[in-house]
Amino acid sequence: MKKMIAEGLGTFILVFFGAGSAVLMGAHIGMHGIAIAFGLSIVAAAYGLGAISGAHLNPAVSLGALVAGRMSAGAFVQYVIAQVAGAIIAAAVIWLIASGKADYAVTANGLGQNGYGAGYNGEYGLGAALVFEVVATFVFVTVILGATGPGSSAGFAGLAIGLTLAGIHLVGINVTGVSVNPARSIGPAVFAGGKALADLWVFIVAPLAGGALAGIVHAAGLTRADD
């Protein structure tokens, strides 16, 4: 239960910092600021809660850990439930805060949801969205497995992971808004509805595929330091 609470709270921090910065401060800080907010959220959660649960905060990360042999199937299911719940609660809090502004409407202003195609950020197509999410998640989970595995520098994993997520956002916000995390996408989509829900499958399937591939490659020893 303690691990589930840590995963739920950690994912809440991720979505509250990241999606919250886009909704409440996006016009002032731009994409660079949003990228930094996502990166800082990982640093905060990793150092604050990582000792309890490992601070996966992401079903794709947990799937990578499962495939790499670092967690059981039962623990994976529990982590995912907690992560999705934390993301939904965070999105609800962001929506409540944003609704305090007279000219805010979730249908018009959004809730930091992911997307692609006409009318979304750079209007990249489905193929570009899938490639970016698979590749970016593969890179992200590979860094996580390496930074927390044998031979890693103790105490620096949270910083390395947070900076990696910030870098991924600097590359891909204009493409999909950057998911690399099904829970992060599910939370805002639940409240945004419409296109966000229609596009959601991309941000579940592609990150999970990237995370699983990272786990497979790590388990094969290709991205794992010698034990």
TrEMBL record:
InterPro entries: Aquaporin-like, Aquaporin_transptr, MIP, MIP_CS. It comes from the Bacteria. It is a multi-pass membrane protein. The keyword Glycoprotein does not apply. Keywords: Cell membrane, Membrane, Transmembrane, Transmembrane helix, Transport. It holds the Pfam family MIP. Its main location: membrane. The keyword Transmembrane applies. It is found in: Cell membrane. The chain crosses the membrane at residues 36-55, 76-98, 124-147, 159-180, 200-222. Belongs to the MIP/aquaporin (TC 1.A.8) family. This is Aquaporin.
